[in-house]
Amino acid sequence: MIIKHFTDNDLYKFSVMMAIQRLYPWAFVKYAFTNRGKTEFPEGFAERMREEVAAMAKLKLTKEEKAFIKKRCYFFDPVFIDFLEGFTYKPEEVTITQNGGELSVVIEGYWYRTVLWEVPLLAIISELYFQMAGAVPQGVTEKAKEKAIALAKMEADFSEFGTRRRFSFNVQDKVVGALQANSGEYFKGTSNLYLAMKYNTTPIGTMPHEWFMYHGAVFGYRSANIKGLEAWVDVYDGSLGIALTDTYTTDAFFNSFSLKQAKLFDGVRHDSSDPLVFADKAIEFYEKNRIDPTSKTLVFSDSLNLESVKAIKDHVAGRMHDTYGIGTFFSNDVGAKPLNIVIKLTDVKVHKKDANYLKAVKLSDVAGKHTGDEKEIDLSLRTLGLEE
Fold this sequence. Notes:
This protein is α/β, with parallel strands linked by helices. It folds into two domains: about 10-135 and about 340-375, nicotinate phosphoribosyltransferase; about 140-330, nicotinate phosphoribosyltransferase (Alpha-Beta Barrel), CATH 3.20.140.10. It is about 45% helix and about 15% strand. The chain has 17 helices and eleven strands. The strands form two sheets. It has a six-stranded parallel β-sheet with strand order 5-4-9-8-7-6. It has a five-stranded antiparallel β-sheet with strand order 2-3-1-10-11. The longest helix has 16 residues, at about 120-135. About 45% of the residues are buried.
């Protein structure tokens, strides 16, 4: 069994889960798997994966996990924590098929439930693939130690974000332990809730792209960012205050980021495009709005390694507080080629009884890398004045 713990998942899935329950409890959605790297999956993969998904129905929140959430996730209300204690996965929400080497995974159900599937399913796909390929990880602890020491020498605040594309749970577990042991104050935590508990560190995460994708599909693309952020504040009242910027391109985000929101949110997160250009845009935005940029935080989380962290840190030095969420470079740098895979929201309904789904799309700061229905992508680009 690959997923052995209920909280072996990223914090942001639980945070958006509470927001969905609070505001959109009737929302009904679909997600779909995309194999960006065109990996060929071995014969029998789908069957093995279905067995792993079926086993997840047995997972339950333990007393230890509940106590940790109550202690460290102060932003979750007691009703939500009690709900998690009674939550069980429903494998029937996940449809897995295989045609030759091509894998298809579709998730469908109430959004407040299905939101938890993305990260563990990606972790299962990655770990199961390497199991079936007979891959053996190399230099796990040694590499993590070297990276931790290097980041500490740079005085770079960083967190581990590697659950979705990890080589395996055991690799991620060893990596988090080595990072914590060798980087002192600069290691700020991990996105993985279970590993945060195991190592008594801070669980890290705020909001996902799907939060804005839902708002874009339902309320319109011009309103998506501002509506999504206002809704987030309605739920968290200022906690979890790092805003994700690139669901409908960074330029569109800053065009709609209001003065009130800019002052309320602690900072912004970069997840695509040139990080140096992004940093300049963020600093310019804050200065234009007479906000001291050094009072805000820039979180960088796009395919980072030691070289890119150093380049960004040198660029923003003294201008803003910078911190780094590092994923695959930590959890799958063990001698095997990591999979390039995602699961994205594709269709939404405000209510299950609605006749038709609305299409959900994500735009990219990189031209030609948008995600979702092509006609809906074209509509969103035209609506936002971003025609290519």
